[in-house]
Amino acid sequence: MQAQLLNEVTLLLERWGGGDSAALSQATELLYPELHRIAHSYFSRERFDHTLQPTALIHEAYVRLLRIDHLSFENRRQFLGLVARLMRQVLVDHARQVQAQRRGGDAIHISTEEAAPAGVPDHASRFLELNDVLDQLGRINERRAKILELRYFGGFGVEETGELLGVSAATVSREQRMAEAWLHEAMHGGLQT
User: Fold this and answer.
1) What is the pLDDT of residues 9-48, one digit of tens each?
2) DSSP result, the chain
3) How far apart are CA 11 and CA 180, in angstroms?
4) Which residues contact residue 28 at a Cβ distance below 8 angstroms, ignoring those fewer than 6 apart?
5) Over 50: is that where the pLDDT of 112 sits?
6) In whole angstroms, what is the distance from residue 28 CA to residue 35 CA?
7) How many CB atoms sit inside 10 A of residue 74's CB?
8) CA dihedral 120, 125, 130, 131 (to 10 degrees)
9) Cα 5 from chain centroid?
10) Tens digit of pLDDT for each residue in 42-63?
11) Which residues have a Cβ under 8 Å from the Cβ of 94 and sit 6 or more positions away?
């Protein structure tokens, strides 16, 4: 991003933090390409027939942003980090809703085996499991959980993640490797979760 545009975004985010609700809309419009990149990053790990789309994910995260009062950001990276977390929450809520519908709701009652072709994993369950394991990692080591969230779900690079968290790129890489090893063990039954 150009320096002038970065300054404009920072000023808009400061105005929003000061209570100017129109400033959020303006900042979001300027950051839309980056927001779309983050949303697309989330969907690159989802099944191809997901009922949400990147644009809908951005819009839902925006609605959730509107519900938050008195936030201040030092820069656009902090803002994008928050939006990435909100997008993850939207996807988790959606996965929970899908699971609830499978268990009852207003849907016709069929088993999971009938709903999905043989050999196809239940994506809602796997996403919720991943979310739970990331939450558990966050309780053990918050920075490692944030690194995975920003790198995998937010689509941030090593340098960007380091800037956002106030650590070096080498620290991000090292912490990411440790977090991935822990996550792999937790997801495959090697850890008591």
Assistant:
1) 889 988 888 888 788 889 889 999 989 888 888 776 665 5
2) --HHHHHHHHHHHHHHHTT-HHHHHHHHHHHHHHHHHHHHHHHTTS-TT-SS-HHHHHHHHHHHHHT--S---SSHHHHHHHHHHHHHHHHHHHHHHHHHHHTSTTS----HHHHS-TT---HHHHHHHHHHHHHHHHHH-HHHHHHHIIIIIS---HHHHHHHHTS-HHHHHHHHHHHHHHHHHHHTTSS--
3) 36
4) 35, 62, 65
5) no
6) 8
7) 11
8) 150
9) 24
10) 776 665 556 678 888 888 888 8
11) 51, 52
- The amino acid present at 158, given as its one-letter code, is V
Q: What is the CA radius of gyration of the chain?
A: 18
Taking the C-alpha atoms of residue 54 and residue 59, their distance in angstroms, rounded to an integer, is 9
What is the per-residue pLDDT for 115? 40
Contact 148, 183 (CB under 8 A): yes
pLDDT value at position 121? 46
Burial class (CB in 10 A: 0-12, 13-18, 19+), 62: middle
Q: Which amino acid is at 107?
A: A
Q: How far apart are CA 32 and CA 55, in angstroms?
A: 10
- Amino acid identity for residue 187 in this structure: M
CA–CA dist 154, 152 (Å, integer)? 6
